[in-house]
Design a protein that fits this description.
With 193 residues, the protein is an all-alpha fold. The protein is 69% helix and 0% strand. It has a single domain, classed as Hypothetical protein af1432 (Orthogonal Bundle). Helix 3 crosses helix 8 and helix 10 packs across helix 11. The structure holds guanosine-5'-diphosphate (GDP) and fe (iii) ion (3 copies).
Length: 193
Amino acid sequence: MTTFAEELKTIEEKVKAHLSDGRFQHCLRVKDYAIKLAKENHLDEEQAALAGLVHDYAKERPAEDFLKVIDQFDLDPDLKNWNRSIWHGVVGAVMIREELGINDPAILDAVVNHTTGDGVAMSPLAKVVFMADYLETGRTFPGVEEARKITDQSLDAGVFYQLKHTLAFLADQGNPIYPKTVASYNEWARHFS
Ligand code: GDP
Ligand code: FE
Ligand code: FE
Ligand code: FE
């Protein structure tokens, strides 16, 4: 019998081996913030911890690894027009399943959606990981304290806050915006209007 704490430690070692120290520490902080948000929202803390820990597992892989997985697992070929920012969630979830042996569909779904968010039907666990990634205690962007307060009051309001600000930031930088990010924003904007 392996306990959850033992499983988490094993996965933690594997995540650490694939990431720079800075990004590994970010993953640990996302894990902790995801546990906090799971508690506040009466969700499974173990799922939140594991999803937060692994969410950026694939972030430092070479492009060719992602391109190989897109072909091998018949993922949307349009993904090839994007980059690591988008790949590490959508394609990274496949690597997490194959390489870390995490099969829980709720955890994999949360990883898939952690960068782009998803529409109003987004799962509570996916909302928690999406917000923990944005709000973990190492984040220092202007407005982070306000974003933390809003999210403590309402996870949904936090999701919309992040989508609004990320979209505005990407557009301000003249960056291409992944269609799912726009679609997610539109659904939440209608929901809150
Ligand atoms: P991180 O992996 O912890 O750095 O955080 P995320 O996975 O949330 O985001 C990764 C990067 O993707 C960040 O620089 C975001 O600004 C960027 N990003 C988020 N959504 C989009 C999008 O729709 N299009 C593009 N091009 N970049 C995005
Ligand atoms: Fe990420
Ligand atoms: Fe994020
Ligand atoms: Fe992250």
